[in-house]
Amino acid sequence: QPELGRPQRNCYTLPGLNFAYGLYIPRTDGGVPEAIGHWNTVKPRTSVRKMPRDFITMNLGALKAGYTTAHEFNLYYKAKDIRQKDDEYSRFKRSPPNVPADFTYGIPTRSSTPIFDLLQHKYKELWMEQQRARTAAAKPDEKKKVIILQQVRETRTTFLRKNPPPAKEESFWHLPRLEKVEPHLSTFPDCDARKKAFSA
């Protein structure tokens, strides 16, 4: 029930100081005295790893036996299952090669820039000389381009632009069966009535 004169609380009261949260796991190993008395060691398990097949040796043996088809090769693999040796997959063989003690991996460090060249703006002068040489070498190329453009041969397209072909005259010929024929139905009783109707 709520306390007298106070509203009802919407939370739970915490347990005392001696309360332990979580699960209580009793000790079954005997503690320190048992650890000092004797050691419970785990024996290492020896796992025999199955080595992959040595197809090079098996293929040589099958060829020497005179087999040529894939089916015969598969039967030979089942009959003589040769595995690769442990030496080929040992960690010593896969380790990096022996290198001298003073060997350094990577790119050697660049030599430091002399401060005297920086103070004299030597790098700027070298760059300016390179730019001048580049512009001097590019000027003859422009003259060559102009000469080449003047010597361009005239193609069919340029010739047709200058001298367009004459326009074809439209032919009004058509099949004789499609020609207009005189009307065979006469709407007017006589020729005078027809003239009178068209004149109106």
From TrEMBL:
Top-level taxonomic group: Eukaryota
Any Pfam family hit: CFAP77
Record-linked InterPro entries: CFAP77
Entry's transmembrane regions: none
PANTHER family: CILIA- AND FLAGELLA-ASSOCIATED PROTEIN 77
Protein's name according to its UniProt entry: CFA77 protein
Chain's gene name: Cfap77
